[in-house]
Amino acid sequence: MSELIDLDAIYAKSSIGATIDALDVDLVGLVPVKTRIREIAALLLVESARRELGLQAEPPSLHMCFTGNPGTGKTTVAQRMAEILHQLGYIRRNHVVTASRDDLVGQYIGHTAPKTKEILKKAMGGVLFIDEAYYLYKPENERDYGQEAIEILLQVMEDRRDDLVVILAGYKDRMDIFFRSNPGMASRIAHHIDFPDYSQDELISISELMLEKMHYRLSEDAVPVLRDYIARRMQQPRFSNARSIRNALDRARLRQANRLFANRGTPFARSALEIIEADDIRQSRVFTQ
């Protein structure tokens, strides 16, 4: 009789269910992203079951590329991905090291290799998240040392793929150019996940979650003002999705604090410390531009 394998038991033992569920709590929307993460988790879970039965095969390639505009949750998903990989035994450490070009590329001969190797050493056993990875490649500058960092990364991504997962991130069009210019890097990336922009309704939900975590809430009059703010801000340059919403709420908190401080001679209820009023949002330059 063939040996039976209980995937549900492996799933429960790994605790990845709680991590995947946390994505729905932490991130509004992003249904295609969450679906892809669940698919990758399912692949890794089945591979774990195969290992238990002695069905050895080449470990799946786990290097990834996250593309999308700023503020769409790429860093958060990288952290959750590290948790899943750790829970299933694909990495030794549940940690993410975030790096940019400045962390990897030196400014003179002999400087790049030590910098890159130091970052790789810190990330080993976990996940290395390289934001705006295309800045590593600057072919127009003959004296640029980014190519040296790329070559070191390529070697480690191949030779140490059982002990390090690399996630590259950035704008999709620029990442496409980067991969065309660096086919060796493209061939090592197994999973490409595109992060869509948030809709206006999703950004409203995100703002509510942010305020709740900070123990604030909007007054009844402030709700339509925030919706109007988001609609206007989405049409302006340098809009960064959830990141722009967080910045807007921080500025609203600043105005609320100044409003309360200006009236410090009059005692007020605890609720006043929690409520963002319509004027706290309406004073934004977004409404005058």
Report on the architecture of this protein.
By secondary structure, the chain is an alpha/beta fold. The protein contains 14 helices and seven strands. It has helices spanning about 5-15, 15-25, 30-50, 75-85, 100-105, 110-125, 145-160, 170-180, 185-190, 200-215, 220-235, 240-260, 270-275, 280; strands spanning about 65-70, 95-100, 125-130, 165-170, 190-195, 215-220, 275. The strands form two sheets. The protein has a five-stranded parallel β-sheet with strand order 2-3-4-1-5, with helices on both faces. Helix 2 (about 15-25) packs antiparallel against helix 4, helix 6 (about 110-125) packs parallel to helix 7 (about 145-160) and helix 10 (about 200-215) packs across helix 12 (about 240-260). The longest helix is centred in the N-terminal third of the chain and has 22 residues, at about 30-50. The radius of gyration is 23 Å and the shape is globular. The model has no long low-confidence stretch (mean pLDDT about 90).
